[in-house]
Amino acid sequence: MSDHPEPTTVTVLAGGLSHERDVSLRSGRRVAEALRTSGFDVDVLDADAHLLPRLAADRPDVVWPVLHGAIGEDGALRDVLEVLGLPYVGSRPAACRLAWDKPIAQSLVAAAGISVPASIALPQATFRDLGAQPVLAAAADWAGFPLVVKPSRGGSALGVAVVGETRDLARAVVDAFAYGDTALVQQFVPGTEVAVSVVETGGTVQVLPAVEIVADGGSYDYAARYTAGATEFFAPARLPDDVAERVAKAARGVHEALGLRHLSRVDFIVTDAGDPVFLEANAAPGMTETSLLPQAAEAAGIALDVLYRGIVESVLG
């Protein structure tokens, strides 16, 4: 018998068939590299028809889903992992569903006393039943311009548009419908965009430094998120200390209000008055070379292999 214990086995799930497949593959590779540096025995598997038989046969010690889009963030895959009895990194299925549905998340966050933008959710059926033009005219009169239009579910800023005038509103809503059957129309909040990552290691919740996002084109869209050099980041964000503390407190409040676990990323607009306004929460944050959680860890002086080891160990208890 060997005197050396077998290394902990971690299976990283990456890929899938969502619009965010490429991002997921890049994130998965980065997580796997860091975990191997930590000494774990790591496999990377795609989320396809071969996945469940492989997991059932291999029985890894921990599964780390690094899947974006519906399969990674709507809770369904995590339901399956629980049925298989496999420990996994990340939030439980119910919490994933709450964060994935932006209107529900905003309602819960607002109930926790955290500011959210005024918004309305418009299912496709509403346009069909009431007519697109009257509905859009009412939304524009209510909120004024500019407006933000986005799918009610989804990530990576896919289908998100800032609309400055009436003639562009219908197109923005149609584009949002390409990613789901409900569009979220909300008031544009001017200010500084920041992302705050929350991680749980060693039995404690840690809020990493906020990362400030300044997109070259003014909009932190899909291309700005995943094209190196397309966006300027400041980590930590250029916020006064008291505002940074307020933002960190709000991020932890969102993490707890939605029941998130192990890791999350919370996006805010910080107004000129220093008030954080919640935009959305991500239960499966990106882990690519341009993603925000890795940048926040670096700003905190935490090596990714050390951070990811701590997250895996928190799963193992």
UniProtKB/TrEMBL annotation:
Pathway connected to this protein: Cell wall biogenesis; peptidoglycan biosynthesis
Entry's family note: Belongs to the D-alanine--D-alanine ligase family.
Active site residues according to the UniProt entry: E20, S156, S291
HAMAP family hit by this protein: Dala_Dala_lig
One term of GO molecular function: metal ion binding
UniProt entry tagged with the keyword Nucleotide-binding: yes
Its biological purpose: Cell wall formation.
EC nos: 6.3.2.4
UniProt keyword terms in alphabetical order: ATP-binding, Cell shape, Cell wall biogenesis/degradation, Cytoplasm, Ligase, Magnesium, Manganese, Metal-binding, Nucleotide-binding, Peptidoglycan synthesis
Cited InterPro entries: ATP-grasp, ATP_grasp_subdomain_1, D-Ala_lig_Van_CS, D_ala_D_ala, Dala_Dala_lig_C, Dala_Dala_lig_N, PreATP-grasp_dom_sf
Chain ranges of the ATP-grasp domain: 106-313
Residues engaged in binding Mg(2+) 2: E280, N282
Name the record gives this protein: D-alanine--D-alanine ligase
Gene label: ddl
Protein's organism: Kineococcus rhizosphaerae
GO BP terms, alphabetized: cell wall organization; peptidoglycan biosynthetic process; regulation of cell shape
Cofactor: Mg(2+); Mn(2+)
Main location: cytoplasm
Cofactor binding summary note: Binds 2 magnesium or manganese ions per subunit.
Reactions catalysed, as given in the entry: 2 D-alanine + ATP = D-alanyl-D-alanine + ADP + phosphate + H(+)
Subcellular localization, as worded in the UniProt entry: Cytoplasm
GO cellular component, one term: cytoplasm
SUPFAM superfamilies recorded: Glutathione synthetase ATP-binding domain-like (SSF56059), PreATP-grasp domain (SSF52440)
Binding, Mg(2+) 1: D267, E280
TM region(s), chain numbering: none
